[in-house]
Design a protein that fits this description.
Length: about 140
């Protein structure tokens, strides 16, 4: 059993088109620290994006459950969202993409792909996908 970092990507399955929420992709390209990452949307820095960085920079982070103190760490939602997409050094400055392995819960296809790294942050959906086979039930 290996240690994988997890990348949660919001996109439909590239093979069957089913939208089952968030794809749970795993990578061994980073430290085996069991970290969880959430890539930024591709239009995160675009001022025309209604729900991008400009909008989220003015919103507070709310507690997720009673007595949650984690919300006091972040100055805004934008800061929290960017922190979830930020890679640690030396990976942030050295990588152009991270290779991930994911599966679709609807069609049981196992596939590999890449998630882009830009300015030390994961950005966008999985691209350059290749089917690896079917998941075993």
């Amino acid at each position: 059993m290996g240690l994988f970092d997890t990348v949660y990507v919001s996109q439909p399955c590239p093979f069957c088109g089913a939208w089952k929420g968030i794809l749970d992709a795993q990578t061994k390209d980073l430290d085996p620290s069991l970290y969880c990452y959430r890539p930024l949307p591709e239009d995160w820095y675009d001022p025309a994006n209604l729900f991008g960085k400009a909008f989220r920079a003015g919103l507070p982070v709310y507690p997720r459950f009673p007595k949650d103190k984690g919300h006091t760490v972040w100055a805004s939602q934008a800061e929290e969202i960017e922190a979830a997409a930020t890679l640690e050094e030396p990976y942030a400055s050295q990588l152009k993409f991270v290779t991930v392995l994911a599966d679709c819960p609807a069609c049981n296809v196992l596939f590999t792909g890449k998630v882009k790294v830009q300015d030390g942050k994961l950005i966008g959906p999985i691209y350059d996908m290749k089917q690896e086979g079917r998941c075993q039930p």
